[in-house]
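ENTRY TYPE: paired fold submission
RECORD: A
CONTENT: sequence, then structure tokens
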Amino acid sequence: MALIHINLNSKCLMRTVEVTAVIPFDKILEGETDKEKYKTLYLLHGIFGNNDDWVTYSNVRRWAEKKNLAVIMPSGENHFYVDCEANGERFSEFIGKELPEMMERLFPLSDKREDRFIGGLSMGGYGAVSNGLKYYKSFSKVIGLSGALDRGSKAMKPSGATGHFGPYYFETLFGKNPEGTDKDIFYLLDKVSKEEDKPDLYICCGTEDSLISVNRDFAGKAKEKGYNVEYHESEGGHTWDFWNEYIEKIIMDYLPLEEVDIGITSGNVGVIKK
């Protein structure tokens, strides 16, 4: 398994973006990339985080290696992965379109919808669910861990931000009235529900997490609208202990992946299919 740090130039964001990638390296080293293209999980970090969070605070690399899964982790800064009309940055398009296209040119990743998944925690949970729905033709499974799913909805007060953020922080990102737009997850949920190829949803949250109510509400509404939803809650807060526990469940049990054994090949640690 290779851990790769990438700096790439994004047209959508008009600057260089940092991306951390976990790539099954045995096929690349052995020159067998034409025989198999890897399934890929696009995994988004939370607010105040960065593209290294998942490999620093969780065992995602270990589980990905066991399942021969590529994991792509971009830097989302604190921008909630939305297209921002105020400054012209198109984070949503970057996540839903530009990044997969770039990664599939750079690495032997499958471009099939059924082989592409998107997930994230907290702010990244919002980003994964909103962009997974918005770009539903690109991702077959959408995963939200403790997602901030009230962003963009009527429950949000754009000009009421306090604490770490200025009074117009959310208004700058989401606009003055995001309800009923593609930044409103509940609007997207209703819109995409009419499509035959709507994605499957996996939603989880800790019972001690302040976001538990909105996650329960979202999962319930998704089921009502005919989505294939897997919802989980268990004891835990807004912590890496909870997210590390569930990223293992997601990779090892939920995603349609083939488990492999770790072996020694040509002097390198490799993977051997069962």
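RECORD: B
CONTENT: sequence, then structure tokens
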Amino acid sequence: MMNENVNTMQKTCSPNTYDTQTSVLSNEEVAEAHYLLRCECPEIAQHAKPGQFIHVMVSTGTGLLLRRPFTIYTVEGARITMLYQIIGEGTKRLSEMPIGASLQILGPLGKPFDIASSSAPAILVGGGAGIASLMLLAVALRERGILTLGLVGAQHRARLLSVADLEAIGIAVHIATDDGSVGHHGFVTDILRELLGKTDWQCPQIYACGPHGMLAAVAKLAADFEVPAQVAMENRMGCAMGVCLGCVCPVRVDAERIEYQRVCTEGPVFNPSDIVWEL
């Protein structure tokens, strides 16, 4: 049955998408209920772009029939990493996988961030595990010499993610926590609002990923200050290939028409001004 599923996926996906079997090289807890898993996937690593994701078969023969989507966090030669949060049974099982455990991974998938034509200063806004979608982007922006600032939000200090990784590539980071245990006491979008009001951060490009409410707030701030933005949506996914329609979000295609687009294929990266945040 697995071979039949693999063959079907290979026929459905683009030429630069691969369904490959690999094994866990490391799987370490990096914050409360958050893990960083490393594995070797040369083809996926070669073609991965910022904002794209992989679809992982967590285990077989356990009743977990659907794969789980995870953003590609970093690329290290032929190796990729994924930063993930324990949310349900699938991610709990994933966190318990030892070194050498087998994984079936499909990717890279989805529409990436568009940075080809931008030279504007960049502000990265990550809420919770959403920062995972921005690390590969941060590396790409730094390689292009683009001034980049990171805004990282978390529930509390123990769940703060990626600050050291961003600082290691020369990105200054501002932190916000819901309980005020570290950094700004409040939302990460509070910091974004303050920055956009300063003359030295006028006309930046915003890139964001996080909870729906945070992304809606980013969209409003981008519109209010008239700055361009791109957001990576985190909708639940079933097939990750555009077939099941389980991950759709409402998108305004013109003044009179809204259509439901698939986050796994038309996204996960969207222009936030196109998203209908409240229906």
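NOTES ON RECORD B: Residues 209 and 215 are 7 Å apart (CA to CA). The helical segments are 2-12, 42-47, 89-95, 135-143, 163-168, 188-196, 212-225.
STATUS: closed
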